[in-house]
Amino acid sequence: MLISKGEWQKNKLMAKKSHKKARQQHRIIAIVIIIILLIGASVAAWFVFNRPAEQPKKNATTDTRSYKERVGTAVVDADQKAQSGDVAKGAEIYDDLIDDSTDDRTKAQLLAAKASLYVDAKKYDQALPIALEADRLVKLASLSVTVAHIYEAMGNKAQAATYYEKAASNVNPKLPMADSDKEYYLSKARELRGQ
Hints:
The protein is mainly α and 195 residues long. Among the domains are: 67-121, no CATH class; 139-195, no CATH class. It is 82% helix and 0% strand. It contains 8 helices and no strands. The longest helix is centred in the N-terminal third of the chain and has 46 residues, at 5-50. It is rod-shaped.
């Protein structure tokens, strides 16, 4: 099957037109794809540059240090207020610190310090519930001793003896003077019970 030269040229021309048309279609498709990519990149860039800035994450070390510094300054201020006769203002300062505290041990220590403001002012009725709350939060001999001292100052020997015994049971055995502290608290409890 032979084709004539005219037919061959006609087929060749049609093939050229077909290829030309296909190339034009490919160019159009490529241009459309490029336009879609440009629009997508523009939208993505708009979202990236127009979203609200993220808040920096808090550094726990920095927060703790600033909290400790604040506590140190506030404790001195509270004690000065109480010593100058404004126990209520000193207690208010401790209340703010207690509200900001995040762990029971710190809270208990701040409560004990607040209670001592009232003890120093001989306001034992106000000191007692605060000291009891501190003792309830954490089992530390020093907190139980604070409660025992308040009960003793109020004349309630039985409760004072109970808290001295509790202090003896809360003594940290790893401390260097643990045995003598424990014996002292137990002897104090015996003395208050008249034994």
